[in-house]
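> forwarded from #structure-qc
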């Protein structure tokens, strides 16, 4: 596997895994309640994320939690573009990512300086593929069954690992055919997106299989409801569960961890790295 990602002129080395810190600029983000909504506050949070050791900051302006309502593109833009501009200016060496599925927001975010587009809809929204193909940013293709508002109602698979694997393989092929080179593509099985607890557990157990697709593997397990379901803990008490899952994912080959708690995740990563290089 290639061990680097081409992000709009910057190479993100992945010979060792790295951390993507989450920066929500939504009033309803379930994990931090929209505490970082102003540009100043978002920049302050970005500083903390970078100081804690993240290589990537993922900025999101639309909540994609199960049951969330869609946000109009104009509103999403208004939330994220000023934050992106500010953070890209202050941290030109950090890879700034935009979490969006909307082509209009992708375009503005790319103009504002993002180097990675994190799309939970894997560029299936009309126009999204073209936006990425005519840019040089990297893209994360995530699997999701259904759409955020309804996806947790009754998710069903014959074989969740096979189906997610084939979906991601097909989306990689669509990207390649559109002219997006393989060294710009990341994949993600999409934990919690149209998946029961059992589906999520099977995906983690078989995570290694996704390495066959030959592109870097991103996982988002941080504070997710599967941890709540196993431990019966609210979202603000899921750090131990998050680190446990992060450790498993790293051991099975995850390249990028999308997390809320950067510092403890970096510590887990250092431990795994030490064992790996023994
Ligand atoms: C994921 C994600 C969310 C994930 C990728 C949350 C935006 C829910 N989860 N993007 N986004 N992977 N690539 O719990 O798992 O943070 S939102």
């Amino acid at each position: 596997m290639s061990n680097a990602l081409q992000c709009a002129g910057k190479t993100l080395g992945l010979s060792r895994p790295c951390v993507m810190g989450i920066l929500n600029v939504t009033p309803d983000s379930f994990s931090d309640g929209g505490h970082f909504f102003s540009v100043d506050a978002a920049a302050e949070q970005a500083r903390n994320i970078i100081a804690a050791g993240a290589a990537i900051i993922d900025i999101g302006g639309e909540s994609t939690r199960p049951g969330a309502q869609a946000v109009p593109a104009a509103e999403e833009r208004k939330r994220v573009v000023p934050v992106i501009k500010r953070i890209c200016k202050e941290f030109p060496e950090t890879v700034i990512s935009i979490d969006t599925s909307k082509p209009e927001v992708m375009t503005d975010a790319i103009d504002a300086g993002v180097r990675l587009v994190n799309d939970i809809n894997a560029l299936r929204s009309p126009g999204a593929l073209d936006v990425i193909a005519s840019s040089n940013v990297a893209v994360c293709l995530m699997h999701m069954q259904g759409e955020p508002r309804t996806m947790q109602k009754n998710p069903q698979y014959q074989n969740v690992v096979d189906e997610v694997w084939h979906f991601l393989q097909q989306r990689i092929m669509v990207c390649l055919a559109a002219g997006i080179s393989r060294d710009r593509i990341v994949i993600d099985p999409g934990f919690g997106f149209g998946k029961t607890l059992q589906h999520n557990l099977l995906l983690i157990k078989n995570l290694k299989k996704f390495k066959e697709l030959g592109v870097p593997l991103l996982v988002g397990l941080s504070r997710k409801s599967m941890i709540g379901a196993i431990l019966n803990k609210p979202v603000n008490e899921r750090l131990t569960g998050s680190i446990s899952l992060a450790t498993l994912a790293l051991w099975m080959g995850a390249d990028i961890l999308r997390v809320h708690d950067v510092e403890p995740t970096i510590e887990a990563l250092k431990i795994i790295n030490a064992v790996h290089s023994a």
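QC bot note: The CA atoms of residues 20 and 56 lie 4 Å apart. Residues 4-277 form a domain with the TIM Barrel fold (CATH 3.20.20.20).
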